[in-house]
Amino acid sequence: MKLQKEIRTFCPYCNKHTVHIAKSVVAAKPATTRGLSLSNRRRERKLKGYVGKVKGKTPVKVLGRRNKVLLECKECHKSIERVFGGRTKKKLEIKR
Ligand SMILES: [Zn+2]
Asked: Ligand 1 centroid vs 38 CA: distance in angstroms?
């Protein structure tokens, strides 16, 4: 996915459409579950024996990352964060 360096979009501070400068934000790593937490130990203990369904859901793996872009307004110099493309495996490129 390619993005222009300058985008004309809505600024909530100016309350109108202005030109923004795009900067990519490095997304934080998705949170991992603690393997030795009490609930995980209890779940493993339950699954060890002859049991049916154990309550609770198994964690679902999140596919792809959100491409966050920091848009800085040229008029008021305030910035807003925005996600482009939802959860995609494609990398976001900002044109120069
Ligand atoms: Zn603004």
From this structure: 48
